[in-house]
Structures
1.
Amino acid sequence: MVKYLFILGLITIAPRVLADEICPAAPLPSNQLAEIEKILSPLKQRQIKYGNNCAKEFGTDFEQLVNESINDGLKCLNGLNTQSSKDISKKLENLFQDRTNIIECKNLGTKDSTITAESSVDDHQNRPEEKLFHPYLILNADKLKGDDPASKEFLKSTIFHESIHNMSYAHGDGPEIAYTCEACCFNTGSPETRDLACRACGASLGDALNTKYIHAILPWAQATKSTYRLALDDLTYKGLIQEPGSKDYLEALIQIHPFAGEDIINKVMARNLVKNQILNSDKAIEISKLPIEAPAELIQLAEKIVAVRMALLVEGNASKAFDLAKRIDLSHYQALGKKYQNDDFSNLYYGLNDDLSHIGKDIELQKKRAEEFEDFHFQFKIVN
Ligand SMILES: [Zn+2]
């Protein structure tokens, strides 16, 4: 149950803009204002059941604040004026019409806990013993209450974020809507990354594997060092397994740095792709020219891993990739792992691990060399 609960970590409260400010990505045409007002007016009858503690914890204007949060979110999404943002806005509007939403306010966990809120993404998270039925959200009063404007804005942005989870959008599983649209509409990130968040939010509905979406969210994920980089790495990888050699996915893959430290594999991979004239964009050339500040023996290992990656992701040849992986001396690999027990080695480890798991799936799928692979993979796991 717990793994399905999505938690918004406590973030530093940055100075905020006025709540009714419209996202900066696209000014709202005046003829649309009337339309939005039309959308908002029937929503005064939103179906929301408030917990008894909410007014006690957050004050008698709490209901008004919830409505402001949703109204501000709807205005912002409509102001972005993309198909995705309009679709998300419609879903948000329907969320409060189709079923009764439960908003509970209580103290979650200990005083030191960083949990600000919890919410349901589907009916599997119903908690009948607590009378919580999807869609519900629980606000951690300890962390969210306060009379100053910044606290009120943080509370509003949290309600909006959790409502997006209530629309069945989780983190790391499909497009990242909660963080990007929250940062866009409530300015919860740094001011410099807000526009990137708006672009990602505006492109976010639909297939997360879509390369247009990946390229739209990538600048935001990089600039904010979001954990979504892990999901993006995974998505581009999946895309390349389906479409080996796709330039759009390869461009994204060499730009994603999901792990801390120098990303040796990406730079070596970019050099390889540019040298072999597979990629020739300015960005790929720029990455290929970046200095690699790592010990020579790690760069040599990265080159061997990239050879595996080129066979797997560019040629789509899992058997060849497996043969190249087997040429990596496992005892030498193990020795390097012990010597560089830090970020320098970790991305090489995770890089090769990713490759092996996909080689394994492919070989398993085609029932070729499966036993041989299992044996090799077992040894690889033992050394790490
Ligand atoms: Zn969340």
2.
Amino acid sequence: MALLAIRDLVTQFKSSAGPFNAVNGVTLEVERGEMVGLVGESGCGKSLTLRSIVRVLPRGARIAGGQILYEGNDIAHLSSGNLTRFRGREISMILQDPMSALNPVYTVGAQLMETLRETRGLRGKAARQRAIELLRLVNIPDPERRLESYPHQLSGGLSQRVVIAIALCAQPKVLLADEPTTALDVTVQAQILKLLKDLQKQLQMAVLLVTHDLGLVAQTCSRVAIMYAGRVIEEGTVEQIFESPRHPYTVGLIESIPLVDGPLHTRLPAIPGSPPNMAKPIIGCAFAPRCPLASNECREGTIPLYDVAPQHRVACGKHALVSKHSVIYGVRANAAS
Ligand SMILES: Nc1ncnc2c1ncn2[C@@H]1O[C@H](COP(=O)(O)OP(=O)(O)O)[C@@H](O)[C@H]1O
Ligand SMILES: [Mg+2]
């Protein structure tokens, strides 16, 4: 049984024109101790999916369908009292901007010790000892001294390390990381990613890493789910996704990863057009308006997830026509000059 299994999750927003599904049938599994990437363009519903899992939803949003199974129990419809046991204990979440997650008026030590009291019942010396251990675990130098620091005295990288330490207080089995490096400098990004990877291995903790950067997932995750317009449209191992992508959107994403050793400025965005407005109902495949392979049947009904290999699923009726090397978009991205 998967540690966390999300099935057909629908999360709805109220709007003046009526409700719309910003998460529109997400299906996704996370096994114990594994690191899974959840990738997609801005606005496709990544954050809302994570927020649905811990039910920290923005005003006007609600879970309107589907299941969120944690160790086999559906937590999507738990009362808020029962949910508290999961939120921040079994499942922790860290966000893009570490400063917004820290309270500016309390020291690092006070915030860690408060969380340790809430989640583990630790107080006094024991809490302080554990706080120091946690700072050490996230590679913060001179942890005793850092306990006395206030958030504004920390760099972005150190702040994110502190946020991660706070998220680890309860020894969660799942860490949800929502673009945890986007707000940081490039060199610091790599360090934080490495830290997450090390923690995942060392603590045998599952990590669901949300990012818009497929390249970053390739370096850290064992499996990837690709989201488009509120759905997971392809899911597989990193190898399957990079070596035999089956959704034209995935192929486009792979082609638009900048080459590390290539001339960055000679690349074209591989996928023409832009994602649909989620406030309007989507019929058929949401990607069809941008897809060079789309035909009439792509614009009807709901596209099912096809099993194309063990662990590899894709929501595309044309998946048999797609491979990494097919020239789907006419121009290969790297052919531009
Ligand atoms: N506070 C909000 N009010 C109304 N709609 C929202 C709000 N937040 C998000 N949405 C809608 O939900 C969609 C998904 O948002 P989000 O999960 O934040 O995307 P991502 O994290 O992938 O960038 C957005 O495209 C938007 O349509
Ligand atoms: Mg987001």
